[in-house]
Amino acid sequence: MPTPTELVESDVEGSQGQEVDSKYRLIILAAKRSKQLQRGASPRIEIDPQKHKPTRIALEEVMRGRVHFAIKENGDTD
C-alpha cells in the first residue's frame, strides 16, 4: 500500500482534474477543503464519512479534481 506522500507525488504528476502544479499547493487545497468538511460541507465524492477522516476525504477530492481553485498573480489587490 502506498504511503500518503507517494500518493501526493504520483497525483501531482498525473492529475485527472484541474492541474495542481505542486504537491505543496495540493496540501494547501486539501487543508482548506478539510476545514469546510469539518464545518459541515458535504463530500463531493462517493465516500463514507463515518469511515474516513475529513483530511482524507479532502485529499481525495482534490486529487480527483472535484475542488476548483484559481491562482492569483502576486501583487493583485482584487
Q: Would you summarize the structure shown here?
A:
This protein is mostly helical. Helix content is 46%, strand content 0%.
Description:
With 78 residues, the chain is mainly α. It has one domain. Helices cover 46% and strands 0% of the residues. The chain is built from 3 helices and no strands. It has helices at 4-13, 23-38, 54-63. Helix 2 packs across helix 3. Mean pLDDT is 81; it is low at 11-15.
Descriptors for this entry?
78 residues; elongated
Beta-strand percentage range: under 5%
User: Rounded to an integer, what's the Rg over CA atoms?
Assistant: 13 Å
Percent of residues in helices: 40-55%
Number of domains: 1
**Overall pLDDT metric:** 81
Number of strands: 0
N- and C-termini, Cα separation: 44 Å
Which stretches are low in confidence, meaning pLDDT under 50 for 5 or more residues running? 11-15
Number of helices: 3
N to C succession of SSEs: HHH
